[in-house]
Amino acid sequence: MSLSTEYMGLKLKNPIVVAAGPWSRDGASIQRSIDAGASAVVTETITLEANQNPSPRLYLSGSGQLFNTTLFSGIHLEQWEQEFESLRRGDCKLIASIWGNTPSELAYLAGKVERMGADAVEVSLSAPLGTRMDVGTVPREIFGFISAVTEAVDIPVVADIRFDYRAALAAIDAGADKIRINPGNIGDDDRVKAVADACNAKNLPIRIGVNGGSLEKHILARYGAPVPEAMVESAMYHVRLLEKHDFNNIVISIKSSNVPRMMAAYRLLASQTDYPLHVGVTEAGGNRMGLIKSGMGIGGLLLEGIGDTLRVSLTGDPEDEVYAGYDILRAVGYAVAGPEIISCPTCGRTQYPMIEIANEVERRLKEEGFKKPVKIAIMGCIVNGPGEASDADIGIAGGKDCAVLFEHGEKIRTLKGDIVSQFVEEIHKL
Question: Containing domain of residue 17, as a range?
Answer without folding.
Answer: 1-181
